[in-house]
Amino acid sequence: xxxxxxxxxxxxxxxxxxxxxxxxxxxxxxxxxxxxxxxxxxxxxxxxxxxxxxxxxxxxxxxxxxxxxxxxxxxxxxxxxxxxxxxxxxxxxxxxxxxxxxxxxxxxxxxxxxxxxxxxxxxxxxxxxxxxxxxxxxxxxxxxxxxxxxxxxxxxxxxxxxxx
Length: 164
Description:
Elements: H1 2-16, H2 29-48, H3 58-72, H4 77-89, H5 91-114, E1 139-145, E2 155-161
Antiparallel strand pairs: 1-2
């Protein structure tokens, strides 16, 4: 009976164990990657666009964007920064995380640059020229025409025949 209780308790503990080997409160690698990707993009946006606007405070705008990111991923600011410090202390985990983010960025850049769906839209004050009319060009098709001259037999002559 004691052996059965020990086996059941061991199975229960194994089921409750964290399969990633991460402490409680630390984001899993795939969730941390998604949140960190959004945070990096928000910081890039702030540095490239909002910094140029002298009426806006870049730190405040960046904090607003981060709060939106945390709300989107249903985590708190503390959860993110605790997880970030954990991954920062465990360099191998952080290297894997940053490599996957780098690969994702390169993949998105490649699809943006080389996708056929992206069209360059131009703006012009000049009206566009009208579409040229569709012309039907006659093609030549061999047909047999009997010749009424008694010295020659029927021959092939080429006459223009419009092709639809």
